[in-house]
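Limitations
The structure tokens in this dataset are predictions for the assembled complex, not deposited experimental models. Users should treat interface geometry with appropriate caution, especially where small molecules or nucleic acid strands are included. An illustrative entry is reproduced here so readers can see what is and is not provided.
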Amino acid sequence: MIAAPVHLAGERLMLDPAGGLFWPETGLLAISDLHLEKGSSQARKGSLLPPWDTHTTLDRLTLLLRRWKPRIVVTLGDSFHDTEAASRLPKAELARLNAMTEAHRFIWVLGNHDPHPPNGIGGQFVEEFVTHPILFRHEAVPRADAGEIVGHHHPKASIPARGGPVSRPCFVIDARRLMMPAFGAYTGGLDVRDTAIARLFPRGGRVFLLGRDRLFSFAIGQLDR
Amino acid sequence: MAGTLPEPFLNWFAARGWTPRPHQLAMLDAARAGESVLLIAPTGGGKTLAGFLPSLVALHEAPQDGLHTLYVSPLKALATDIARNLMAPVTEMGLPIRIETRTGDTPANRRARQKVAPPHLLLTTPESLAVLLASPDAAVFFGSLSAIVMDEVHALAGTKRGDQLALCVARLAVLAPSMRRVGLSATVAHPEAIRAFTGADRIIAVSDGAPPVLSMMLPAGHLSWGGHMGLEAAPQVMARIRDASMTIVFVNTRAQAELMFQALWRLNDPMLPIGLHHGSLEIEQRRKVEAAMAAGRLRAVVATASLDLGIDWGGIDQVIQVGAPKGVSRLLQRVGRANHRMDEASNAILVPANRFEALECEAAIQGVAAMELDGDPPRPGGLDVLAQHLLGLACAAPFQPDDVYAEIVKAAPYADLSRQDFDDVLRFVENGGYALEAYDQWRKLFRDSLGQVHVRSARVALRHRMNIGTIVEAPMLKVRLTGKRGGFGIVLGELEEYFGGLLRPGDTFMFAGRLLRFVRIRDVSLECMEGGDGEPMVPAYEGGRLPLTTNLADRVRDLLRDRSMWETFPEPVREWLELQRSVSRLPGRNDLLVESFPRGDRWYLVAYCFEGRNAHQTLGMLITKRMERAGMAPLGFVATDYVIGIWSANRPHDVAALFEQDMLGDDLEEWMADSSMLKRTFRNVAVIAGLIERHHPGAEKTRRQVTVNSDLIYEVLRKHQPDHILLRATRADAASGLIDLNRVAGMLARVKGRIVHMVLSRVSPLAVPILLEIGRENVRAGDTEEALLAEAEAIIAEATGERDPPPPKRRPAARRVPLQTSLFST
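Predicted assembly:
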């Protein structure tokens, strides 16, 4: 596994190919948009998706915790797919999650899918989380100061390769802001060229596409060819 | 009275100077005897009237209220046209018969009125029929049904739409036990299978009349070694168009249609009206072209399979097929478009785009002369379609699983369905069928104390009815032509979303016969303007290519083997084969010729399998895996309909072992699991089975919100429940479809112990075309998305000076292939 180092507001951050971000200086691991229990949320509405999404997402999180051994874990919002998602967590998964929140300092930034702290989940629930000079929040604020790390949009990028385009979730970064890919097992994505994302990176920037063991880096302007 | 028509009908025929045809009267007899029949007749044989005549007579003799006859066609447009054509005799004879259509385009108020006051004759599509059957009043609505007429059954049997229709007919047979079934079909290779599909007691066959007159036309000068577009022949095609009054120029892909259309217009000095017709064009535009054809206002139309089916346009005196015909049945269907009258010979010209295609054209001409039709017998019905149907049944009324199982196995595609598979599909519909009983509270179906299956709620039923259908399209963008001042613009048609993703503002592309400049993508629209400069891109489309049929492949092999046949071949083809014979050998009827030779710093292995592109792709993946293990360091492979070419760093050895049947074991499993083809197949299965919904009630949400990534679901399901019914359905689909496992397995068994390996010092004449394909469509051995991404990253970094180019002796496949080559369907 090869993590990619990037710099934001003078801080050195490591991007993990599994979709997490580690800040060595502070021992902080960030992940975004877990959308736990999206499967059962869809099931409730009539689409009986395979029920192992939370299991899969927590497996992936376990891997990251083992790899980076963080002191602090920050999730950037939309951790639970809906306001009742936490109460639908299967017992075994709830136990696993609580073991994690006990072993690490867990900061849950709230998102639009989970605007209120759910019951029975360990850790601290906040609107935003700041460790100077970095600010963690769910949705980017257009004119925010440099040093914002956000989630919400589930960025993905499509690279024209031989035989057709290859599309992957990605990190997006410019001098002011870093947007994280969604970490949840059933989370779709929005192309970084969509105006909703592009307007947040008006002077371009770089994308880092998630790979099996490494990231693939492109300048946003290069995505077209 | 047997074989006679009532007075008004006789007068109506006589007034037109017509006589009822024998098969039309035979259909009448069959109906009076209460028999279900399959009518096999060539186009232009008065087939449709033969299908309806018994119903018209019955309604004349005994007027009734309620639905009498249901007509199902694969095309909406066909239903509409036939309704119009039937109105004429009904009005003129003053028959008390009401005829209406019901398709996805029928307005809601008319649909509602049809429920209350059904017409006597209802013309519809399999999808709209399924929606009607999923409604609680289906039993009343269809209770009076006397007959169902299924048109173009040969085009439906063996497809998922056919599966759906067969299931619907099985249900209709329960609701209206005295219903007769009538199938209308073109001449087919497996009439018995089509009879079973129709559920007919017997077949009434009409002979095909005069055999078509086919000839081959080569481009002036050089006959190309490679390439599939056939644009070199445009001048000759243009000359033929000038000499005929109305020509259809059939091509194989939409990209080829766009290019041929442009090529013809460049030569169109007399400014003949020439149109374009393919499946991506806006329906309105297509209808305009069709209307212009029917009215004789066009001299030629460049068309794809979108014109293969449909009503009789009349007035077409010439069909030109540019590119390989791919199959005898398909060629006959296309040729039948000319001179749509049975007693006159159709006239068609085949234009091969390269030397192999010249062989294929020759083989097809012989196949047509021998009337050796191709096409495999219909495959078993899809479990995904069954899942959709079971939910539909529950939406209409509660059912007993035992009864429904007995009903389902009466539908021919499901005749061999095991009770186990049926139960698994039912469980999937009920609660997802997962090993983990997680969704008990959100099940879609529940069982009462008597074991009857009910739908859980009206909401589930509503959502189901919105998602009925078995055609799954790739995500599409509407192509919107805006004026200089912007505005809403006109819609030209639809393009695959991924193609839009490859364009950047200012890029030129070719669509709907125009050169367009890309402006931007907004929501689900691709906005563009007229004009643009630079080399245009041509959208390539998924699934545009049919593989060569087994029968035609056999004929091509025969042609190669039998030198006495070569005399009829065009000169360049004959020379090519003679040269091959002197430096190597020709593929035999039942062996497998494999050649190996060095070239540059690589070794090449070329296998002449003739099993079609899909099977060759699969074989290529499996063989390169083996070569890798044997230390031959394969670098890449390319597959066409005829051959596989593999290049490697080390010399290939022990070639027979590379083709041993045991490759269909672990290697296949491992590759299939990760294959993008399987993921694509899974997406279709998941949508049809109702796991992923296309439409939601209420406000139309943005695409992003409704998109559940099917690849992720596939991964999760494969990891946790690899034997889930949907994964089983996916594998079954892929085996006969994109992966074409059945053909791979068949070939490996056939050539066992008969592999002829020719070790050559250089490329053989027969291998030249495949070497030309390399670089056009270049798949590297074991190519994964990871490798492709790494390559794209390296190329861009190099091009922008971020990274030094690699030393010259790197792997040759990493040379900079122009990226847009992938856009040109080859």
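Some entries come with short summary sentences. For this one: The first strand of chain B starts at residue 37 and ends at 40.
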